[in-house]
Amino acid sequence: MSSVATQRRKAAFGRFWTTYRHDRAGMAGLIILVFFVLVAILAPILIPDDALDVTKADGERFDGPSLAYPLGTDDSGRSLILLLAYGTRISLTVGIAATLVAMIIGTAVGIMAGHFRGPGSHVLVGATDWFLVIPFLPLAIVLATVLGPSTLNLIIVIGITSWAGTARLIRAQTLSIEERPYIERSKALGAGNWHQMTRHVLPNVLPLVLANTTLTVAIVILSETTLSFLGLGDPLAPSWGALLDRAFSSGAVSRGAWWFVLPPGICVVLVVLAFTLVGRALERILDPRGATA
Amino acid sequence: MSLLQDAAVGEPDPIRAPRVSGSVLRTVGGKVLRAFITLAFVVVFNFFLFRLLPGDPIGLYTRGRNQDAEQLAELRRALDKPILEQFLTYVRNPFDPGIDSTRFSRPVWEMIGERVWPTLLLLGTAIVLASIIGIWIGIRAGWKPGSRFDKTSTGTTLTLYSMPEFWLGMMLLIVFSVGAFGIPGLFPVGGIVTPGVDTSTPLGWLNVLWHMVLPCTTLTLIYLADYSLVMRASLIDERKQEYLALARAKGLRDVMVRQKHAVPNALLPTITLIFLSLGFVVTGAITVETVFSWPGLGLLTYEALRGPDIPLLQATFLLFSIAVIVANLLAELLYAIIDPRVRS
Q: pLDDT (tens digit, 9 = 90+) per residue, A177-203?
């Protein structure tokens, strides 16, 4: 029984991959992502710990690109290319972890709001609408101030401010799935709420969740950059946003130290763009109705 | 805009009119009520969240300024009152002029009042420019999807969409204010006006305009990415509608089909989005005003969070939320007024 299901899934994935391979924008995004993921994984192996240590920095302050320092140095003489590689690790980790938090809350709230009837469902829909209306950054600033600056808190703050869009999407999908006959059949066979939601609704909304996840990661990485830039992340973790914060507060802009500012931003643009391209390709393939969008 | 009005007015239906206006009244009432409930939750949230702060609230409130014992005792008395009483005091008037900033020792709403105009000037200009350019790009790209213009503009707008706005601002500052890559410094590095210049003279206006070029360009580029992508998607959706085939079948030229039929309908979701995206606009304001030291509400928020100056932070959060809630309400009402399909 399970082998039949496995085979079918394998075949489905094969069909999906064949279609995906022909999506040029999607493939470009995927290649960029693979590159950054490799950098993130290899960063601690390739980079000596000393490279991040301000007290052991050996370069000139605000030195332009040179052979020894391909991207120049920061305000305390550390090599920027190494900081940037290490930042990849932090930015991607925070981006993916915060997205997971948002996806879990969003999917759970969306399925429950679509499955149940009555006051509980109204409360969930009301909470979703509230989080959709309230402006993201002021809310995140307020939450981050209360929780204090740390990487874990940054993940929590972004997670709980980014789930509402997903919840609304999943609720709409759940409502349409609940209309289908097999739900009625399983109800007639005595399936409880938990069984219906996890065995019938969840597998059907998962493709949508997947496409939505990649689009959410893109927004979440931008959010992480913004919050770190405002000094709300861990001051010791050199994420891309924190690097930009450091560049800004150390006066790299007025010194014209473009090598300090340009690369972190390019990394953010590439990763966010790559996730957006992959997300749009997934949407095109998994949901052919929105093919042109 | 005249296109939009043509589409909105339509032909009045004398028989259905009274019934429609009754339902409109009910819809409007419901929407206003919902906006008030949302706002009420903001106020409640705003009060309780900051009561969760760990540590001594007095220490946090008075960080970085000298206070004599009497003032401290008074603050402590206020915070020692029952939480319900404190809550009722706050809810009764969250705009109380007696709420002082802990960092600047001035009433928070007075400070906000001074900072509103620079923000309105900067954001207003950027939103208007971004809407015009964004919609124009969206129409050209969406009418011929797959064309060279579409590919170039979608690539550019997607890149802009992926960009942290403050980074774009910092790069523009380095290149055009400080001067790099052979370009001389053309624009000021920050602020709204050169110190000592009188802003009530035409020369002063020009000076403000000169200071506004870079921050406004930054925000316009970031906002127009969003607007043009939505306009493009919305026009592509509209192109599939059958009434366009009819318009063509009766011999209308392509330009007329686009301007008179497709664009007005595709504009509806875009205009609504421009209102709905005010939360996104606010994000840009906070970081870009910080980068350019533009003395508006965004920079004030940044100053408040660096403290942290809790009363000021509470006030800016409340103000931004109100602005976004009102914009959302307007978007919904506008949609109901200009799109007859929503009413029925």
A: 888 888 888 888 888 888 888 888 888
Q: How far is A52 from chain B (nearest CA, A)?
A: 23
Six-digit token string for A107: 């999917």
CB neighbourhood size of A250 (10 A): 17
Residue A181 neighbours by CB under 8 Å, 6+ apart: none
- With H, G, I as helix, E, B as strand and everything else as coil, classify residue B100: strand
Provide φ and ψ at A79, rounded to 5°.
Answer: -70, 125
Give the C-alpha distances (Å, rounded to integers) separating A112 from A122, A173, A178, A204: 11, 12, 12, 14
Other residues' Cβ atoms within 10 Å of the Cβ of residue A105: 18
B203-216 pLDDT, tens digit each: 778 777 788 888 99
This model of the complex carries an ipTM of 0.82
Ranges of H-type helices in chain B: 2-9, 17-51, 57-61, 69-80, 83-92, 108-143, 148-161, 165-172, 202-239, 242-249, 254-256, 263-276, 278-291, 297-306, 310-338, 340-343
**How big is chain A by its Cα radius of gyration, in Å?**
22
Query: Would the CB atoms of A269 and B163 count as touching at under 8 Å?
Result: yes
Residue of B nearest to A130 (CA): B38
| Cis peptide bond prior to B308, omega within 30° of 0 | yes
Amino acid at A208: L
Q: Which amino acid type is present at position A25?
A: A
Please report residues of A whose CB lies closer than 8 A to that of B328: 133
Q: Per-residue pLDDT averaged across B262-283, rounded?
A: 80
Chain B residue nearest residue A273, CA to CA? B162
**pTM to 2 decimals?**
0.82
| Beta bridge mates, B107 | B100
Cβ-nearest to A138 among B53, B291, B316: B316
Per the CB < 8 Å rule, is A142 touching B306? no
Residue B202 CA neighbour count, 13 Å, CB half: 0
Q: Are B175 and A261 inside 8 Å of each other by CB?
A: no
Query: Whole-angstrom Cα distance, residue B284 to residue B301?
Result: 12
Q: Which amino acid is at A102?
A: A
Q: Are B162 and A222 in contact (CB under 8 A)?
A: yes
The answer to whether residues B160 and A276 touch, using CB atoms and an 8 Å cutoff, is no
